[in-house]
Amino acid sequence: MNISNRAPTTSRRCPRRFTLIELLVVIAIIAILAGMLLPAIGKAKEKAKVAKTKAEIKGLEIAIKQYESTYGYLPVAAGSSDVKYSSSSDYAPLIRRLSCSGTPTSDYNLRGIKFIEVNAASEYKDPWEKDLIIVFDANYDGKVDKAISGTADDVMKSAAIWSRGPNGTDNSGASDDVTNWK
């Protein structure tokens, strides 16, 4: 039998594979796209934190207004000047009053109404884990005095509430601070 007279067989072709250079180009393109996307994700996260802070401040403001509407006075002792709460130890009693998590008789919420939901009475922080700043119009003159609050102008509200914002510095409602009046 002669081997050379055999009919030619169809050869199997190997599927085409990517070369190393093609793979490196694809990886480089993915890296460039990821590099462009990461800053946008960071900005979106900051915007989400600002939006969350605005919502929390608005909820606190509504709770204060409901308390005032229910009892006829703000949830602070009335005084001759405005009252500023700038740390959680200052406003923990306020949050207890509004959330009705303390003893009603000692915390000025005699009817036991829950005006606000919080996880812990002494923990009411912004998304950057900083305390909110609250200034009440305790003398009921229709404005929060700029001398007490440190704001650039008087705030025409019964309670000025703000967060120090992303930079964590109290700018008295200016710069990147998140407020309930602007």
Distance between the termini: 99 Å
Query: How many distinct helices?
Result: 3
Instruction: Extract low-pLDDT stretches.
Output: none
Task: Report mean pLDDT, rounded to a whole number.
Answer: 83
- What composes the largest sheet? 4 strands, antiparallel
Shape: elongated
Q: Which assembly state applies to the chains in this document? A: single chain
Strand order of the largest sheet: 1-2-3-4
Percent of residues in beta strands?
5-15%
State the order of secondary-structure elements, H for helix, E for strand: HEHEHEE
Number of strands: 4
Tally of individual domains: 1
How does the helix and strand content classify structurally? alpha+beta
Give the fraction of residues assigned to helices: 25-40%
User: What is the alpha-carbon Rg in Å?
Assistant: 31 Å
List the keywords.
182 residues; alpha+beta; 4-stranded antiparallel beta sheet
What is this entry, summarized?
With 182 residues, this protein is α+β, with helices and mostly antiparallel strands. The chain has one domain.
3D architecture notes:
- There is one protein chain.
- This protein is an alpha+beta fold.
- It has one domain (45-179).
- It contains 3 helices and 4 strands.
- The chain has helices at residues 20-71, 88-99, 146-149, and strands spanning 83-85, 133-136, 159-163, 178-179.
- It has a 4-stranded antiparallel beta sheet.
- The protein is elongated and about 115 Å long.
- The N and C termini lie far apart (99 Å).
- The relative contact order is 0.13.
- The model has no long low-confidence stretch (mean pLDDT 83).
